[in-house]
Write a structure and sequence with these properties.
Length: about 190
Amino acid sequence: MESIRIMVEEHSNVLRMLKVIRKICYKLLINEGYDIDDFPKIIDFVRTYTDKHHHGKEEDILFKTMEQELERLAKAGAITGMLIEHDNSRLYMTNLEKGVDSFKEGNDQARLDIIANSICYADLLDRHIEKENNIMYKFAEKMLSDSIKEFIDEESNKIDEEATKIGTQEKYLNILSQLERKYEVIN
């Protein structure tokens, strides 16, 4: 499935950002070589590229269709588990944003909130991506009918075309590359 191939590629980009997150958190922990203004860039990447664009395709197209078409999977709760993890990732970003704001207002202890929510997010997404790539996506490719796979590809393609038109990929992959260079993160 072309849509799943693209989602796996997007996961690779998210994993790259997780490395940036870990590196900047270490810099914040040792209190050297970080720029607090990079956290809003990370939050924007996560909310727009990872959540709105990527998770949007998963939630609104792939998982929704899998739930409708694969009764056994729906009853097992696997899709619900993936959606809960998406919601948890959103909570970590909200708490991260609050921590960054508090830190910028002079609360040095907020660095704990920044590091805790960032690392929890990174750990959650690392495990989450592993499950999606190796279980959920493979299940979809194996169990869905060809016509349903075609439908998912077509619907996902519409979202990808719109993202290309407005420059989502270009903008966020540039942010990712800049942060990787700045924090010397090697893929």
